[in-house]
Every structure is written in C-alpha cells, then in structure tokens.
Amino acid sequence: MIRVEKNNCLQKQCIPSLPSVNRLEKAMLTHATFKSSASVLDANVRTGGMAEYLLSRTDCQVCGISDRMEEIRKIRTKLSNGDFAYAAIGDIPWQDASFDVVLLHPALGGLAALEEQLKECSRVIRTGGQLVLGLKTVPAFLIRAGRILELPSMDGDGIIGVDDAENALKSFGFIHITRHPVAFGGCVLIGQRREDEQKNRLE
Predict the structure, then answer these.
(1) Bridge partners (DSSP) listed for residue 85
(2) pTM of the model
C-alpha cells in the first residue's frame, strides 16, 4: 500500500506487483507519504522502478540521479516525463530546499559515506519534507561482533546498523524518525526535516 496525501486526506492505493521494484523499494514506496504534486528526488535511481511507479501512478514531479551513466541513459529513454541527471549522491545538482521527498538508497562505503550523502540530501529537502532511507541490514549482534573482531566488511560494503543510521539522521536534523523492517535483511527509516536544523545546516 502507498499512502498518498491529497486535500488533507490520507488515502491508500494498492501497489501492483512490478518486476522492476524489489522488496526494499516497495517498502520505501509503501511507508512514504506523497502529497499531491510533490517534488520527489530518487537518489540513486538504479533500475528506475520507483521513479517509474511514481510517474505512472501519482502526479508527483520526479527527479533522479545516478553516478552510472548507463543507468541514466536507460532511464531517460524509458521515462521521458522525469528529470534524471548523472551525478553522485554527494553532489546533487539541484538548489537548496528543492524537494518534498528524497528516496535514498545509500551508495557503498558504510557509515562515513552515508553521512556524506545525508548531508547533501538534507540540503535539498524542504522544511517538513521527508527523507526515506532504504537500508540493507544485518542483525545488530552481528554488526557488534564484526566491530569487536575488527572485520572491515561490516562497515565497508554498504551494510550499516539501523541504530547508526538513525543516529546519523538525527545528527542532520531529522525528527519523528520511524523504522519499518523489511523481510530478509532490510529496513526503511523515515525522518522529517526540522526547520531550525535545516537553517543551521545551510548557513
């Protein structure tokens, strides 16, 4: 189910089975709230499944980025009604406070990379907007064990602890953070941009 906020009324619409939307992406769409005519950034568009869903089934204005040129070429050919740019998540080519919702699949690099990406995402989200973070996860006890044993793969291959991700969201001024576990190793975190923190970050 995807929640669509329109005319101050929360409505529910069914998400059909789409081959190009994986379980984690479907959960991101399910738990996010999209206002009518919202401006949405799909950060790290990958196959373009979420962008395609939003463009075909909502009236959202959809933009997207990828640091893989081939992905951008394919998506531009397939989705001519969106705005897709070749760019890294840490260097988003839109102005401050451009989007109501940012959908983020973190690029590889662990927690340090996530923090850099959140810094840039927080810049382009409007006050009151949503950051929807889709994480691949492993159980917390395995994260702790990996750190005790100094296994670099626990922090270096994109596997980030949910607690660490939530703390990172808080550090960049997101509030009302909710967690939505996804079966088979995933979690969606949603945070809202707080006004005073955004002003501090942009100064």
Answers:
(1) 65
(2) 0.80
